[in-house]
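Any chance you could type out some protein's one-letter sequence along with its backbone structure tokens so I can compare the two?
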Amino acid sequence: MTDHTEPTEVPIDEHSEVEIAPAPSPEELGIELPDGPEEAIDVLLRAVAEARAEGAELRDGHLRALAEADNIRKRSIRDRAALIEQATERTMHKLLPVLDSFRAGLEVEATTEVEQKLRNGMSGVFTQLMDVLSSEGLVAIEAEGEPFDPSFHEAISVLGEGDALVVHHQMRPGYRLGERVLRPASVVVGPAPEVDGS
């Protein structure tokens, strides 16, 4: 059986006083007070003003230190992100020839059942590899049929003349990492086909 005893109230003695620490003496504070009350008040007011000024200076120094610590933390985060981005970009650059080799291998026509199985296996691995690289921000640049844009396309051949050039054929794919172009697409460009208005 549980004991449900009510908490007992402690009676407050109306005559008991809250104990307050005594004020320090001027000597304990390192203040020498003159005998006259007005001069003593002036000395105390100056001491209070100096203490406030010192407190404000310490507070400002503390706030500056906090702000500097916050700036260092933010700078560290930015530097770490930049290092990761640079490392990712270097790795992606090194993988581009691997992707080119994969694509070249997949363009070879399979003539036997064994070659077809090998090609299918390569295609599956290539798809997995591209999925992983895409998750890290690698994007193939759109080329064939797109208006020629020297920011994304490198023209290695021009068919005919005209102002509105489009990509007729992609010789080598280009890639970007996020918004940054890793390698422009090598393309053959020419005038845009005329649209039959009839």
User: Anything to note?
Assistant: The domain at 141-191 is CATH 2.30.22.10 (Nucleotide Exchange Factor Grpe; Chain A, domain 2).
